[in-house]
């Protein structure tokens, strides 16, 4: 049964909502708690200040259904909080204020809030909001959500080949796992994954981020472009612009939707994402830091590793590795960075050049590069490494 405005309150009582209240004003929290309890809701948490991202995760992971955010303590901080909660969870967010300001109302809706509650808050108004939240809880619960893995490729600097590695890894992962793979180009300006894969996308990641209030599984699916390998691609814009669309709230919501819909999300993060990078790295299951054995790349990699000290997992990928030209060996790299070289992608200029010019992915052929990426993909999807000496069959293996 889906609740409607005519649903009796006895139905709500049997399906109690868990509510978290966030307000710097204790008196207002007490009034909100009493109002929700009259609707047979259960207050599972109260915060006397606007929490940080990490503290917020601890609150929302307790299984709450509704988060109420009081806007009046600090409207800008509160609205950022609303956007972050909406971007990273499926809970219903209700904004609360003493006054009904049209501009604030619009900002709340853009941030993803489902309800805008104002004083005086009557039982009738709150009852309708609770019923809608109950309906949404059942709708969300009825959807099949996938607990997808997020695999992020980050370049130590421009030109290290992170896009080539990410795209071909995604194709190798598709072949080895047999699962749906989404490849996301998070370069806000001049990403080239679509070109290198021979695609002409109608929509790009900017369409997702600039419409973050509309993001759900159905909407995101319409933005993806299918590659012949079976990988689905969310491309970067095809025109040069410094796009301010990559915000923490919008990106968080996009990642949440993708992880809930696809078993694997492979992200080409490029060399920089600005302030949204921390959210991406906190969300990642594996971060593949792509570098080359040169001073500039290793210097940047060292700084990036320090920034990612709280990341879940880091794999260092040394791209364009050539054992015949070793100016900086593994010992020097590991001593400088403090992490081991996990993966080596061989330097095969001719194969890479031909791949770019023909839009034929390296992962679909038989080359030292494709075999290296195959090993990475097999580990990512939990398959053992191929036995030494087994004949390589390329695409049909």
Report what the structure shows:
Helix 4 runs parallel beside helix 5 and helix 7 packs across helix 16 (368-380). This protein folds into two domains: 9-142, Response regulator (Rossmann fold); 149-396, Rossmann fold, CATH 3.40.50. The chain has 16 helices and 13 strands. It is α/β, with parallel strands linked by helices and 397 residues long. It is 42% helix and 18% strand.
List the helices and strands and how they pair.
Blueprint: H1 9-14, E1 18-22, H2 26-38, E2 42-47, H3 53-60, E3 66-70, H4 75-88, E4 92-97, H5 102-111, E5 115-118, H6 123-142, E6 149-155, H7 162-177, E7 181-185, H8 193-196, H9 205-209, H10 217-223, E8 225-226, E9 232-234, H11 248-261, E10 264-270, H12 277-283, E11 286-291, H13 295-307, E12 314-321, H14 330-337, E13 341-346, H15 349-358, H16 368-380
Parallel strand pairs: 1-2, 1-3, 3-4, 4-5, 6-10, 6-11, 7-9, 7-10, 11-12, 12-13
Antiparallel strand pairs: 8-9
Helix pairs in contact: 4-5, 4-11, 7-16, 11-12
What is the name of the CATH superfamily of the largest domain?
P-loop containing nucleotide triphosphate hydrolases
Total strand segments: 13
> Mean pLDDT across all residues, rounded?
80
- Globally, the shape reads elongated
Estimate the helix proportion, in percent: 40-55%
Order of helices and strands: HEHEHEHEHEHEHEHHHEEHEHEHEHEHH
Shape-level CATH architecture of the largest domain: 3-Layer(aba) Sandwich
Specify the biggest β-sheet: 8 strands, mixed
Structural class: alpha/beta
Our Rg estimate from Cα atoms comes to 24 Å
